[in-house]
Amino acid sequence: MYVLGIETSCDETSAGIVKDGAEVMSNIVSSSLQFHQKYGGVVPEIASRMQLETITQVADSAITSAGIRRNDIALVSVTCGPGLLGSLLVGISFAKSVSLGLNVPLLGIDHLTSHIYASFLDGGVRLPFVGLVVSGGHTSLYYVKDFDAITCLGATRDDACGEAFDKVAKILRLGYPGGPFIEKIAKKGNPYKIRFTCSKTENPLDFSFSGIKTAVLYYVQKSAKVHSSSAISSRLKNDIAASFQEAAIDTLIRKSFRACQMKKVNRLVIGGGVAANNRLREKFYKAARERHCNVYFPSKEFCMDNAAMVAGLAYRLFKKGRVSGLDLNAHLD
Ligand code: KG4
Ligand code: ZN
């Protein structure tokens, strides 16, 4: 069964075709990133305008590269939230029109659950498991009994982990999105040089990344003052990036395995843009080996926002009887 997936939750416009929930026939991603870079973050109005301009072309290209005909599509699926309202509405309206035009069912998909499903595109993962979504907008832990039986165990109380990477990169004047820049310079730095820590949370499975970001800001301001300069050396920048990254990853590891212990499962599935970070992957694999657990990451292509994860999850849920009506709307949390 061929499922068309549409994902327009933020600045990416993506469409893909997935066969039977796991075989990715195509996954086209067009990003409006270049138009946001000079503002240091995504501008919602620009993002939704670009979605509108590219969605038809991206969807056509997904169908062509999958080597199928339009009439082969048996289900249209679309991210319905959380995300930017204007961007989500472009995808949802487009998906509704394709579903009506082809006379096939429509299914709205939760963005966070689809990030978790991304690892199932590579196969080999079994239920139940603990899922960690670590992206620019969210940092959440879930107990996933099945894809229609998901319990949230914890979430961020303030900034998301990816957002903290982006803000620290801005403080260090590195560029946007910050995660890949931090990862790159952190390789040259000493992760044990500065002791940054994430704030404690009342629920031990919740996260807080706002305090550590402010700690980085104060550290940079203090260092610049000491050297009576407006900028700090690249060597210090490398150490700050490495020390921040290490503290953020250590927090994710500690809480994720605590969740596994609480739920008595030895499978941890990680998704979202920050999961593309190599240091994070290495440290999670090492921690999993020490705890006799298995950890699963999607291939990097499926860490970032993409339509294949939407179409894959939609197949699973459709087989369980889920379907949406034309009253499908965007949700923001
Ligand atoms: O999942 P995603 O593409 O979009 C959201 O749903 O938010 O995640 C984007 C986030 C950004 O904050 C970006 O800085 C972060 O993922 N990111 C990384 C890396 N690549 C992307 N963070 C750390 N290391 C990376 N290599
Ligand atoms: Zn995402």
Describe this structure in words.
With 333 residues, the protein is an alpha/beta fold. The protein folds into 2 domains: 133 residues, Nucleotidyltransferase, domain 5 (2-Layer Sandwich); 175 residues, ATPase, nucleotide binding domain (Nucleotidyltransferase, domain 5, 2-Layer Sandwich). It contains 10 helices and 10 strands. It has a 5-stranded mixed β-sheet, sandwiched between helices. Strands 8-7-6-9-10 form a 5-stranded mixed β-sheet. Helix 2 packs parallel to helix 3, helix 5 runs antiparallel to helix 8 and helix 6 packs across helix 8. The radius of gyration is 20 Å and the shape is globular. The two termini are 30 Å apart. The model has no long low-confidence stretch (mean pLDDT 96). Bound molecules: 5'-O-[(R)-(carboxyoxy)(hydroxy)phosphoryl]adenosine and zinc ion. 5'-O-[(R)-(carboxyoxy)(hydroxy)phosphoryl]adenosine binds next to helix 5 and helix 6.
